[in-house]
Amino acid sequence: MHDTTSPKSIWYVVITILVAAVQLKGASQQPPNIILLLADDLGSGELGFQGNHEIPTPHIDSIAKNGIRFTQAYVTAPNCSPSRAGLLTGKIPTRFGYEFNPIGARNEDPGTGLPSKEITLAEWLHDRGYTTGVIGKWHLGGAADYHPMRHGFDEFFGFMHEGHYFVPPPWRGTTTMLRRKTLPGGGKGRWLSDNLIYTTHMGHNEPDYDANNPIIRGGQPVEEKAYLTDAFTREGVDFIHRHADKPFFLYMAYNAVHSPLQGAEKYMRRFAHIEDIHRRIFAAMLANLDDSVGGILKAVRENGLEENTLIIFMSDNGGPTRELTSSNLPFRGEKGQMYEGGLRVPMAMQWKGNLPEGIAFNGLTTSVDLFATIAHFFDQPTPKMDGVNLIPYLTGTQEGNPHDTFFWRQGKKTAMRRGDWKLINMKGTLANPKWELYHLGQDPTESNDLSGSNQDVLSELTQQWKAYQKEMIPSIF
């Protein structure tokens, strides 16, 4: 029998432990897996970690509980497509002419999409050995040139346009609420029949989401019968299990809670106490999304990847309150607007054992920071970006604000934030703006326009806005 009490044996054990410790330390310094969970049209005031507990969201909340909640997180545009362009490139999208939000048939137009010259986070990680996958909504060009597999993704399961029905027609197993200009037989208001509701409150018809917009696996259309939120989670869980042995980037681009309003029946029953059917459907969709996030987090745990995976949750823009009931409280405005309700989003980040847990980060943060933050793990040259590496700020090794100033533009609408001051043009043109000025530190709800009483600040900010404006290019589509 081997004598483990001999000096030689003791030194062997000590050296073995030291080598294992060094190897473990080296492993912990490897760049983490990345899971980016993106909700669609989710308002800043809907989640539990944002203070609203009407619709329980324990799984999404757990990311903030086990990590960091961002109290001043912004996106690069107040609607889906340019926001996603900024997120994946780390740039203000008007720097490369990606300004507007293509819908319907415009998604198929040649020249309408994320330019191939722009390097995405997926492309950058792919070239550093990562396996990359996008599941869900793409909305960065529907023509062949813009397929996600031509933008750095190894795998794709989802759809190309701005929206999709959650189940195939006739939408069995859901309660469906569709926008119409006129109710059957004429008139306005709501029309109810079994599990189908028509509503005229928005004054227009439901978009033709599924026209020329199949569910695709890789490059081929497939028939998907499961409720889409569940189907996307099934695919995401499978991706994690298949690639747990290698570094991966998984972009879960859910289309919940974007319209069409379709609540699965088991979730509708959960919220039977909500009297307004409109709000009840939204609650069902959000709870379904939360359980799906829970499924992704469970797959991470099952594979022992919690300390080796950076998990980020956020929304692509503010909620369209009139359309969905999604709340942006306490902020003013909604999707499509340059007020806080259109641009400020819920965001949380978790990386067990590497980032602090259960804290709120109050610095000005934007979606472009994610590329810069992830890229810093590699200590290699990166594309020119507007983002900032957040890690020193989150770990406390650097104080202050990641950003002092940020700029937004979409057509005639524009805004700029510098410090606590925010400059907005919603009613004028770019050539003849009608500026509004707010101090967000004292007035986060943008209720008190100070443009008339703070001419010096207004003049200084408009000059800085003009400098930013000169850096941008006209829309490419």
What does this structure look like?
The chain has 2 domains: 32-165 and 219-403, Alkaline Phosphatase, subunit A; 407-471, 2-Layer Sandwich (Arylsulfatase, C-terminal domain), CATH 3.30.1120.10. It contains 12 helices and 20 strands. It has helices at residues 7-28, 58-65, 80-89, 121-126, 228-242, 265-270, 277-302, 321-324, 340-343, 369-375, 391-395, 455-471; strands at residues 33-39, 68-70, 73-74, 131-137, 155-159, 174-179, 190-193, 196-199, 216-217, 220-221, 248-253, 261-264, 309-315, 347-350, 359-361, 365-366, 405-410, 413-418, 421-425, 435-439. Helix 5 (228-242) runs parallel beside helix 7 (277-302).
- The number of helical runs is 12
| CATH architecture identity of the largest domain | 3-Layer(aba) Sandwich
> Strand order within the widest sheet?
10-9-5-4-11-1-13-14-2-15
- For the record, the CATH class of the largest domain is Alpha Beta
Could you name the CATH topology of the largest domain?
A: Alkaline Phosphatase, subunit A
CATH superfamily of the largest domain: Alkaline Phosphatase, subunit A
**Category by helix and strand content:** alpha/beta
Radius of gyration using CA atoms only: 24 Å
Strand content: 15-25%
Shape: globular
Largest sheet: 10 strands, mixed
Q: In angstroms, what separates the terminal alpha carbons?
A: 78 Å
Work out the oligomeric state of the chains in this entry.
single chain
